[in-house]
Design goal:
Blueprint: H1 2-10, H2 22-33, H3 38-43, E1 71-73, E2 84-88, E3 94-98, H4 109-119, H5 121-138, H6 147-169, H7 182-199, H8 205-212, H9 219-222, H10 224-239, H11 241-262, E4 268-272, H12 279-286, E5 323-327, H13 342-354, H14 358-369, H15 374-443, H16 449-472, H17 477-486, H18 493-506, H19 509-527, H20 535-568, H21 572-590, H22 615-630, H23 632-659, H24 678-689, H25 694-704, H26 706-735, H27 748-771, H28 773-792, H29 811-816, H30 818-830, H31 889-896, H32 900-937, H33 939-955, H34 967-1001, H35 1004-1024, H36 1041-1045, H37 1047-1060, H38 1064-1085, H39 1109-1113, H40 1133-1144, H41 1149-1158, H42 1175-1207, H43 1217-1231, H44 1244-1254, H45 1256-1274, H46 1282-1310, H47 1318-1340, H48 1348-1355, H49 1369-1380, H50 1382-1407, H51 1425-1436, H52 1441-1448, H53 1474-1511, H54 1517-1530, E6 1537-1539, H55 1543-1549, H56 1561-1566, E7 1570-1571, E8 1576-1578, H57 1579-1591, H58 1595-1611, E9 1622-1623, H59 1624-1648, H60 1655-1684
Antiparallel strand pairs: 1-2, 2-3, 4-5, 6-8, 7-9
């Protein structure tokens, strides 16, 4: 409707373009003098198609040359009274100006000239070129000599631009004035400051260079798309304000907790305790006061820069013998990592939230404080970071969806607009032709009129057709003539026959299949390149390359012959193929030239040829292209911000890095990451946006100071992350519309592949049928001969009718077998003993829910009335078999086609056999299966198996490296393994007998159980024999049984399969992109990561000492340290994939990039930044190989998630049926009032305290106290004076006293009702523990009880800010999606924990004895279950998994000792297994990332769900619940009525969508609400009226209202019946009528008086009128009393 309204405003009879004159200005002033009505104000809105910066629609006609750059009347009706005019340039771009206020007249020649300059397209282009040139100069560190003069010229250009804008727009801050645009403010400020700094005698150079950088942002207003995106992001920031406040709140709280837990702990180090003989020496060296400062006496681990941290807890790091743990020295990381004050703690927590280098802080805290504080890191690094990221993603997704909807509305308007354009243009053309014909007829003679008519029609139609063709042509007409002459070859009949022959060959399906195979082989050949590579392999690969080039060249030539050059190059894929062919041919001739070997890297383009035959690839690439085109302005905005940040960083810190380089490097050489030049500064900004910022921030601290660096880094992180998140979300949402390609959407090549495969299958089947034809004929003959014998056999011994499955057959089959059933029932009636078909059969238990077996109802109990829908073949198995063998459809037909006498023989024999054997074996077996079924379906049995499963899984955690030292536990575990194995075997046998083999092995979960039983058996066998001992290591698979035992796990696994399996094709596309980058990496860096390292220092030899491998091998001490390769390199495609994975996870990527940048050539010593532009390879990979594939994958997962969610009726697919009920209950709990009504005390004193305690002022006072208490913790620091400690003790005592007083007051008032609220119980516990914590240290000492304990206990009350009633409602709204998605998150978390458990056990079995170095140390290792879980948590959050993998890579003699004796065990060696380690970490990363992505999707979709419900005109239970919560405040006595005077306040107090803003009395009166006695209104009437207002008037509306009324009466049986005496509308009409009557009567009395009556008579008349009013009021009161008396 809105779109149509907009279209009507523009399309039909639009306002024509009229020059703006003085008369126009006078008319505007006359219009503006009139006050428009409220309806006009609401109806008139600015037309989005006529906004500033947009092109004028063609509906307004052609733009005459005289009106270009001239003032015109505003065509938008909204601006009719705004005193504005528009100006159009040659491109029809709209510029709007103001006609009055602080500016020259629109008719002034100077202003007109400046307007013409301003609107000219060249002026904007000239300014843009100037800004871009200025940007280039800003990025230069060394300007040329003519640089200052050129900068003065640019300053003059900017000054001229400002003067032009000032004169053209006027000096004012309103709309369409110069200062009405914030970008103009920026330009004016920068230019003014630049003038001041240039010509002022004071030294402003440093400040000037920084402020001048703001000129870069001038690019944004010069691009309309970037400007609109900035407005969108500012709108997003407004929405994110509450999230930012909540983030700062949580960060502050966690920082205060960190201060209370870890303050001063990171200074604890291991100090060498002097022995008796060296005490004097040390004292003489240092003196007692300065002994602690001797850093050389600290204990350092090998290769570590900082001293070993230690703690006094048992689970903290312990000092080696001869050292003691003391608090000494500075904090780690040069003192920048600590919790000694609030600022440093906040920085540490922000670092943990952004997950930048968390493994270092993680180790430092665990070493100094103990492993128990792992919980702190789990909460911060995982849950808090996850929740904050979900909040930002959710709100950004909501804002993006809103922008998408507005854009869609505009698009619909434009489409309708464009549809109307041809009609209007046709009308104009016909009108013009008619006028031309009339003029020609007037001028010509009558005899020529007819000929002119025909000629005009012909010329007009010919012109229209030619113009249409020209508009469709993309190239000049001469090119088409050239193409038709030279590029379409159809000259000779022989050539045409050749062309037809070649066409048949090249378009044959087998040709496409052959080309596809060639492309795949070529990809394999590209991936086979490696280093070192033998000469034979190199020759084979080069020959293969030439062969493939020849094949592709032949394909191109054949297609050109078959399709003509013109037709060939009309297809985009053909152009791509030809480029690949030309590149291959050029490479053959140019490879030998020096410097052109990089052409080999372009071979990877052949990989993407596969997209021609792959519809998924084509769809994804089209989606990607469309998304990039739509988001190009956002990408430009992100690049502009990065450029701006790099230039600012260069000007701020570039000189500092050069001056103070010795502070960050001992050799006084610049590191890889600095800001001395633009390229390095840009790389630093890129690294910050990738999430690695803390290490560069420490370097910045050392060279520039803390207060200078933190604002810059926070600006880059916050704004840059916002831009990246918005871009990432936009890509995900665009890819979420992905659907797998259907057969209709596939191109000809893909269909040809299917045809070729179909032909191959058909040929194979034909050959097989020919081979097997004779055998089939022999089989048919034997079957015919055996059929008679088969009928005569006694087959009743093998009956299984009572155990058959109830699979449904077609109804016609049931009808055809009706005669059979009748004969059977007759025989059964003759029998004395009931047959198995009549007797009670085994109630086969139904299978558990399983995604793999949807027909889970096929195993069910049967009644004995012979109503089985399926017949069972009775001669195929023994009676005791558990296999349910079903007759095939052919056998059913064969049975029906048997002669009648044969069926009678069959029935007699079977019935006699049933009489003889049915009651014995069949009945016993039936009862056995019944019993087994009852056992396995029993809830106690399920609980028992679940408990045993948990026990067997938990027992794995005890088998660590210390198990051989714990003999008792080892023996118990061995016996437990046997018991568990026997129990699970017994369970499997019971299920086999209960369900049968078919039902058991068609259920995926039972298959998993069967596999686990085999694992149990193999592990027991492995223990019995020494040579089979490796089988014991597969015991970790026992934990998989947990998946099949718990419904929550099943639901999550099945949901993950649903959302991820359909994305397999998308994953393959992403893998193909990675393969391309891997091959390029092999071409660029293979064999170049080798280096010669000094074994004493562990550093690389400088190039002056060692230049190549031969020089390295000639060194004397090189026997133990050969020419060494980096552990992560690009020597082959496999290891390059692993290197790219580390780059993608930003773990170890800095080391890989540094090696790539320093690389020189094969067998050459690396040199510092020798190949610096190799950084571009990794930047391209992060953008193209990480951002885009990740958005593709997540978008596909989101699409599948949404599809399955819709299938389940909108419910979450990660929760069980029981949890769905819990979800609804949780939803009610989040919305309903948790505070139960407390009876008012009768005592006046208690009533006074009640009013005090329940007042809002008291709540504000308590909140203020809580905030002040938090501030008192913030001002603390480590090693503060004793006076401050004493003052803080008394302050805490005061807080404890105040909180105790609050608790006592509430207990006096509420009595036992105080403990009915969870919040009150929490406050009571805080008071009790705080009093205990206050006095306990005085009794037992501060060493056992920390003085910060009381502060942390009191700080816990800060959670009241999140109270849904007393706290901020905005916080409650942000917590709502998380709480509603909590059941699904808990289920997913259980699965993550199970995966961590399984991988932890696997790590204990395989990596427990790995040498401790790099990422494996005393805290993080695989020796015990706890340490393994710590390692896996690090991998889960991408915190240093590269270090652990490097330690596992130690498999050579030079890196580890394979014969090392490990005390307490029989295992020898400390070497790792690289292959196993790669599989271990890569599989774990992929699994956990997949699950965590689904966690994000759950929360973000919950956000979108809540937002969509708020926008939709629907009412939910929450809205009604909120309505009654507000009603309680206006009706505290619960009478169900409120006074009509309160109705306006009540409607204004409601939440949307029932909310009615004031003034609302007129709307409430128009609702015509029934009113009872005393002008009271019932709550149901108000609710129904407001519901009707929201939902509108529909036929279904009456049903909704009736259901609401019936539901209210059922819920409130005590509803007070009443008789409405009037309604609000009638009452208003009565008041208005009474007023009209009074005024009429008064005027009548005044007219009766004489004009010359005295003033006294007038006074008497007024008194009479007043008496009449009083009489009328008395009459009304009497009427009311009469109505009330009968009631």
């Amino acid at each position: 409707m809105a779109a149509r309204a907009k279209l009507k405003m523009a399309s039909p009879e639009p306002k024509s373009l009229v020059p703006f004159t003085r008369e126009s200005l006078e008319v505007m002033e006359q219009h503006s003098a009139k006050k428009p009505s409220e309806e006009d104000k609401e109806d008139l809105k600015p037309n989005c198609d006529l906004e500033v910066g947009k092109e004028l629609p063609f509906v307004y006609g052609n733009l005459p040359q005289a009106m270009v750059s001239e003032p015109l009347e505003d065509v938008d009706p909204y601006y009719t009274n705004k005193r504005t005019f528009i100006v159009l340039n040659k491109k029809r771009t709209i510029f709007r100006f103001s006609a009055t206020w602080c500016t020259l007249s629109p008719f002034n020649s100077i202003r007109r000239a400046t307007i013409k300059i301003l609107v000219h397209p060249f002026f904007r282009l000239f300014i843009l070129v100037s800004v871009l040139t200025d940007c280039i100069f800003m990025s230069m560190t060394d300007c040329p000599k003519w640089g200052p003069a050129f900068q003065n010229t640019l300053l003059g250009i900017y000054t001229f631009e400002i003067l032009v804008k000032l004169i053209a727009r006027g000096i004012w801050a309103g709309p369409f004035y110069f200062f009405g645009d914030s970008w103009n403010w920026l330009d004016f400020s920068v230019t003014l400051f630049e003038h001041i700094s240039r010509y002022s005698p004071l030294n402003f150079i440093s400040v000037f260079r920084i402020v001048r950088n703001l000129r870069i942002l001038k690019i944004i207003p010069l691009n309309q798309g970037m400007k609109s995106f900035v407005a969108i992001l500012i709108h997003c920031l407004k929405k994110l304000t509450v999230v930012n406040i909540l983030t700062v709140f949580f960060l502050s709280v966690f920082s205060l907790i960190g201060m209370g837990l870890f303050m001063g702990n990171l200074k604890h180090k291991c100090l060498r305790w002097p022995q008796e003989n060296e005490t004097d020496m040390l004292n003489n060296r240092t003196g007692n006061p300065y002994y602690i400062r001797e850093t050389e006496n600290f204990y350092y681990l090998e290769g570590e820069r900082y001293a070993l941290l230690c703690g006094n807890r048992s689970d903290a790091s312990q000092c080696p013998e001869g050292y003691v743990c003391v608090k000494a020295g500075v904090n780690p990381d040069d003192g920048y990592t600590n919790f000694d004050s609030f600022g440093w703690a906040l920085l540490a927590l922000f670092r943990l939230m952004t997950q930048d280098y968390p493994e270092a802080l993680y180790h430092q805290i665990l070493y100094a404080s103990g492993k128990v504080y792992m919980i702190f890191f789990v909460v911060i690094s995982f849950w808090f970071a996850f929740y904050m990221a979900s909040l930002f993603l959710g709100l950004l997704a909501i804002s993006y969806e809103e922008e998408k909807q507005t854009a869609a509305e505009k698009a619909t308007v434009d489409q309708e607009f464009q549809k109307s354009l041809p009609e209007l243009q046709e009308e104009k053309i016909t009108a013009e032709t008619k006028t031309i014909q009339l003029e020609m007829k007037k001028r010509s003679s009558p005899s020529m009129i007819t000929s002119l008519d025909a000629l005009d029609d012909a010329t007009v139609s010919h012109k229209e057709v030619s113009e249409l063709k020209k508009s469709r042509q993309r190239c000049p007409f001469c090119w088409y003539r050239f193409a038709k002459t030279f590029l379409i070859w159809d000259c000779s009949p022989c050539w045409l026959k050749l062309k037809e022959f070649v066409y048949r060959i090249i378009m044959d399906p087998f040709t496409d299949l052959f080309l596809t195979i060639c492309i795949i082989l070529n990809i394999n050949f590209l991936a086979l390149e490696h280093y070192p590579m033998s000469l034979e392999t190199s020759n084979i690969l080069s020959i293969g390359n030439m062969v493939f080039i020849g094949i592709f060249t032949t394909e191109m030539i054949f297609k050109i012959i078959a399709m003509h050059p013109y037709g060939y190059f009309q297809v985009g894929w053909n152009i791509y193929d030809s480029l690949i062919v030309f590149h291959g041919l050029a490479e053959l001739y140019l490879t030998n030239f020096h410097g052109l070997a990089i052409l080999r890297s372009f071979r990877v383009l052949r990989i993407f040829r596969l997209g021609r035959y792959w519809p998924t690839f084509k769809i994804l690439m089209l989606t990607l292209c469309n998304s990039v085109v739509a988001l190009k302005d956002l990408v430009l905005l992100l690049f502009t911000f990065m450029f701006f940040s790099a230039v600012v960083g260069l000007n701020l810190y570039g000189s500092n890095y050069k001056q103070y380089v010795c502070n960050i490097n001992e050799d006084c050489q610049l590191p890889h990451w600095h800001m001395c030049d633009f390229f390095h500064s840009f790389l630093n900004v890129f690294r910050i946006l990738c999430g690695e910022w803390i290490e560069t921030l420490w370097d910045c601290f050392k060279v520039a100071g803390q207060f200078s660096c933190i604002p810059f880094y926070m600006m880059v992180i916050l704004i840059g992350k916002l831009l990246i998140l918005y871009l990432f979300l936009a890509l995900i949402i665009s890819f979420s519309s992905y659907k797998p390609a259907t057969t209709d959407e596939e191109n000809d090549e893909a269909k040809n592949l299917q045809r070729a495969m179909a032909r191959i299958k058909k040929g194979i089947n034909y050959v097989l049928s020919k081979i097997l034809c004779k055998k089939q004929n022999v089989l048919k003959e034997t079957m015919d001969n055996i059929s008679d014998v088969y009928v005569k056999e006694n087959i009743s011994d093998h009956t299984l009718s009572e155990l058959s499955n109830t699979q449904d057959f077609l109804k016609d089959k049931e009808k055809s077998s009706g005669t059979e059933k009748n004969t059977m029932t007759e025989n059964e009636s003759r029998s004395l003993i009931p047959s198995p078909s009549v007797s009670e059969t085994v109630p086969i238990a139904s299978e558990e829910s399983d995604i793999e077996n949807p027909d889970n109802k096929e195993i069910q109990s049967k009644s004995g009335d012979g109503s089985s829908k399926e017949k069972v073949k009775q001669s195929s198995s023994s009676e005791c078999s558990t296999v349910d063998i079903v007759l095939s459809e052919e056998e059913m037909v064969y049975e029906r086609e048997k002669p009648k006498h044969l069926r009678n023989v069959y029935e007699r024999r079977s019935s006699s056999a049933q009489i003889g054997r049915g009651p014995k074996k069949g009945k016993i077996w039936q009862n056995i299966r019944k019993t087994c079924c009852k056992i396995v379906e029993n809830s106690c049995f399920k609980c028992f198996t679940g408990l045993v499963t948990l026990l067997s899984t938990g027992a794995l955690a005890f088998e660590d490296i210390y198990i051989d030292q714990r003999k008792t536990i080892k023996i118990l575990l061995e016996y437990a393994d046997m018991i568990f194995t026997y129990i699970f075997i017994l369970e499997m046998l019971l299920k086999w007998m209960a369900y049968g083999f078919k039902a058991y092995f068609t259920n995926g979960w039972y298959k998993l159980d069967f596999m686990v039983v085999i694992v149990f058996c193999l592990s027991l066998i492995g223990k019995s024999r020494e040579e089979l001992k490796p089988l014991v290591s597969i015991k970790f698979l026992r934990a998989l049984r947990v998946l099949s035992q718990f419904e929550k796990m099943k639901v999550v696994v099945s949901a993950l399969i649903k959302t991820t399996l359909p994305t397999l094709s998308v994953f393959l596309v992403c893998l193909m992109i990675w393969l391309a980058f891997g091959i390029i990496g092999v071409h660029l860096f293979a064999g170049k990561f080798y280096e010669c390292i000094d074994p004493t220092s562990g550093e690389r030899f400088p190039l002056s000492e060692v230049m190549n491998r031969s020089q390295c091998e000639t060194l004397v001490f090189n026997e133990s340290m050969p020419w060494e390769n980096a552990k992560l390199n690009f020597d082959n495609v496999g290891i390059s994939f692993l290197s790219l994975l580390q780059v993608a996870t930003f773990n170890g990527w800095i080391t890989i990039m540094n090696s790539a940048v320093d690389s020189t050539d094969v067998d050459m010593q690396p040199h510092f930044e020798n190949n610096i532009y190799m950084y571009c390879y990794f930047i391209d990979f992060i953008i193209i190989g990480l951002l885009l594939p990740l958005s593709m994958l997540i978008g596909a997962i989101v699409a599948n998630f949404h599809k399955h969610k819709v299938k389940q009726g909108g419910s979450n697919i990660f929760i069980t049926v029981k949890q769905k009920k819990q979800y609804r209950a949780l939803k009610k709990l989040m919305y309903e009032d948790s505070q139960k009504p407390v009876p008012l005390p009768e005592n006046k004193f208690q009533r006074f305290i009640f009013d005090l305690v329940t007042s809002r002022v008291f709540n504000i006072i308590i909140m203020t106290l809580i905030c002040f208490q938090a501030i008192t913790i913030m001002i603390q620091s480590d090693e503060q004076s004793p006076k401050i400690d004493t003052a803080l003790f008394w302050i805490n005592s005061v807080y404890v006293g105040l909180y105790t007083g609050e608790c006592v007051l509430k207990l006096i008032v509420f009595h036992c009702n105080y403990f009915t609220s969870g919040w009150n119980i929490f406050d009571f516990m805080v008071v009790v523990f705080s009093i205990t914590g206050l006095f306990l240290p005085l009794m037992v000492g501060y060493y056992l009880v920390s003085p910060s304990l009381v502060q942390l206990i009191l700080l816990s009350r800060i959670i009241h800010i999140l109270h849904p009633e007393k706290g901020l409602k905005l916080f409650h709204n942000l917590l709502l999606p998380l709480m509603l998605s909590l059941p699904a998150l808990l289920n997913i978390s259980l699965l993550i924990f199970l995966i961590m458990f399984i991988y932890a056990i696997f790590g204990m079995y395989n990596f427990a004895y790995v040498k401790k170095e790099a990422g494996i140390d005393d805290m993080s290792n695989f020796e015990t279950f706890g340490s393994s879980m710590l390692c896996l948590f690090r991998v889960t959050i991408f915190a240093g998994w590269d270090g652990m993998l490097n330690a596992i890579f130690n498999s050579k003699w030079s890196d580890c000792d394979p014969d090392k004796i490990n005390p307490g065990t029989q295992v020898r060696g400390d070497c790792g297994n690289p292959f196993l380690g790669i599989i271990y970490f890569v599989s774990y990363i992929l699994l956990t990332r997949l699950i965590i992505v689904n966690m994000y999707i759950v929360v973000v979709m919950e956000f979108l769900n809540i937002a969509s419900k708020k926008k939709a005109k629907t009412l939910s239970e929450e809205d009604f619940r909120k309505f009654f919560q507000v009603w309680k405040r206006f009706d505290p006595d619960r009478t169900q009525y409120i006074d009509s005077s309160k109705l306006s306040d009540f409607a204004a107090a409601l939440d949307p969508p029932l909310f009615m803003a004031k003034p609302n009395k007129g709307q409430l009166v128009s609702m015509d609400l029934p009113m009872a006695v005393g002008d009271r209104i019932h709550c149901l009437d108000v609710l129904l009226a407001l519901t009707k207002r929201v939902l509108g008037k529909d036929l279904s509306m009456e049903k909704v209202l009736s259901e609401m009324e019936s539901g209210f009466t059922l819920a409130n049986t005590f509803k007070i019946t009443y008789e409405p005496i009037t309604t609000t509308l009638k009452r208003k009409q009565e008041v208005v009528s009474a007023t009209i009557i009074q005024r009429a009567y008064k005027s009548y009395r005044l007219r009766q008086n004489d004009k010359n009556t005295s003033d006294t008579h007038m006074i008497d008349g007024d008194r009479e009128v007043q008496a009449i009013k009083e009489d009328s009021y008395i009459d009304k009161a009497e009427g009311v009393s009469i109505i009330q008396s009968p009631i």
